[in-house]
Amino acid sequence: RGYDDIPKEITEPDATKPEDWDDEEDGEWTAPTIPNPEYKGPWIQKKIKNPNFKGKWKAPLIDNPEFKDDPYIYAFDSLKHIGIELWQVKSGTLFDNILITDDPEYAKKFAEETWGKHKDAEKAAFDEAEKKRLEEESANAKTEDNDDAADEDEGKAAGASDEENKDA
Questions:
Q1: CB atoms within 10 A of CB 34
Q2: 94-113: buried (b, 16+ CB within 10 Å) or exposed (e) per residue?
Q3: Residue 165: CB partners within 8 Å, gap ≥ 6?
Q4: Closest CA to 98 of 115, 79, 80
Q5: How far is CA 88 from CA 21, 100, 107, 123, in A?
Q6: What residues contact 23, with CB distance under 8 A and at least 6 apart?
Q7: For 59-97, how does the pLDDT look when each residue is reduced to its tens digit (9 = 90+)?
Q8: Where does this one sit in the cell (predicted)?
Q9: What's the whole-model pTM score?
Q10: How far apart, in whole angstroms, are the C-alpha atoms of residue 33 and residue 139?
Q11: End-to-end CA distance of the chain
């Protein structure tokens, strides 16, 4: 057996199942455990002094004579495509007039010329569609409630006729 195979506790060798133990009421009997005299604790490797140890290693900082800082490393003159990943909780969201710029004034001007002209009409169309959807849902709910009530009335009527049949 290896060092790691020695259990911390072992079952008590003299333990016996009590005579009045009922497996159905008390559950399955398990013997009590005692500390294992062979267990010496978790294994820890021995440490020895290293006379050549000079401290924790650190990467040396060496100047690179060929390095030239480029503040516009992120700028691409020939960039023609971009990918945008959008995660949405509610389906049906539309995205249009996507603008990527680093000029806030240009972005405001572009927004007013595109989105600003149509936002009121889009909001009105959305509100109208939402109102229509809610009316349809409430009409469907009323129809379902009426159907359920009619089913209950039919059930009561059928139940009453059964009772009348029993009495006769």
A1: 13
A2: eeeeeeeeeeeeeeeeeeee
A3: none
A4: 115
A5: 60, 20, 24, 20
A6: 29
A7: 999 999 999 999 988 888 887 888 888 888 877 777 777
A8: Endoplasmic reticulum lumen
A9: 0.32
A10: 69
A11: 85
Backbone angles phi, psi at 122, to 5 degrees: -65, -40
Q: What is the DSSP letter of 164?
A: H
Looking up tokens 């290293």 gives 50
How far apart CA 130 and CA 95 sit, in angstroms, is 19
Q: Which residues fall within 8 angstroms of residue 38, CB to CB, at 6 or more apart?
A: 6
Dmax (CA) of the chain:
111
The two tokens of residue 162 are 């059964």
- List strand residue ranges (DSSP E) for 12-162, in order: 33-35
Residues listed for the chain: 168
Its sign, for the CA torsion 56, 57, 58, 61, is positive
> Which token pair is 109?
């001007």
Smallest CA-to-CA distance from 136 within 124, 147, 144, 148 is with 144
Task: Please give the DSSP secondary-structure letter assigned to residue 42.
Answer: S
Q: Can you point out the beta strands (E) in the chain?
A: 9-11, 33-35
